[in-house]
UniProtKB/TrEMBL annotation:
Stated name of the protein: Methyltransferase domain-containing protein
BP term (GO), one: methylation
Methyltransferase found in the keyword field: yes
Keyword set includes Magnesium: no
MF terms (GO), sorted A to Z: methyltransferase activity
Pfam families registered for this protein in UniProt: Methyltransf_11
Length: 228
């Protein structure tokens, strides 16, 4: 990927993104406080999915930097994070882990990055929050080079006729409002498989937490054809 800026951090001109004046700070604080507990549940899968990353990585929705420990020191992270309340924590985490941060206040649907410019795009607990996962996946496909990969860990809908699925239905509206659009009812595995990748590997698993609607997950890698 080629960038004109050489500073340790760059920020694009922001695209307006509507964050509630209470929910934005609440979510930044929540994930800062709950991050360690969530991380313990996801660590084994992250180590597998995020292994062998290149020197430059694009991440959509990095939040306060939960995935930075999995990036080798010296990595350049092109971070697409529209919630300004997350930026201070993300900068601090990048400094701690020796990651060069290019911070762009842009939504995942409109990255502003060139076609075929990234070897790897990563996301963690992001596609459940975006307004249109299909548009985000199309954008990821656009910016990935032939042979590139999308590495993901996502929160997804539970199986039909399960207790977790019933709880997801009961809590759908308050959950979505509280967590800035996060849906606990999305079949993101189907969305990723339908997004035009040449190969998709998915592991389905369940974590144990008091937040029952959040407990069904997938992790995997989706690859672009080498001759696309």
């Amino acid at each position: 990927m080629h960038h004109d800026q050489t500073a340790s951090e760059t920020t694009d001109h922001p695209i307006p993104f509507a964050h509630h004046r209470l929910r934005g700070p609440f979510n930044a604080t929540f994930f800062r406080l709950m991050g360690p507990a969530i991380e313990r549940s996801l660590r084994a899968r992250k180590r597998r999915v995020l292994a062998g990353l290149p020197a430059e990585v694009v991440e959509i929705g990095p939040g306060v930097g939960a995935n930075l420990p999995y990036l080798p020191s010296g990595t350049t992270l092109v971070a697409l994070e529209p919630n300004r309340q997350m930026h201070a924590g993300l900068r601090s985490a990048a400094d701690r882990h020796g990651v060069r941060l290019e911070l762009r206040e842009r939504p995942a649907e409109r990255t502003g990055l060139p076609d075929d410019s990234a070897d790897v795009v990563i996301s963690s607990l992001v596609l459940c929050t975006v307004p249109d996962p299909g548009a985000v996946l199309a954008e990821i496909r656009r910016i990935l080079r032939p042979g590139g990969s999308f590495r993901f860990l996502e929160h997804v809908v539970a199986g039909e006729r399960t207790f977790t699925r019933r709880v997801q239905r009961w809590t759908r509206r308050p959950w979505t409002w509280t967590f800035e659009g996060c849906s606990c009812e999305r079949d993101l595995e189907a969305a990723i498989r339908a997004a035009g990748f040449a190969e998709v590997e998915v592991e389905r698993y369940r974590i144990r937490s008091p937040f029952v609607p959040f407990n069904t997950h997938i992790a995997g890698v989706a690859r672009v054809a080498t001759d696309s």
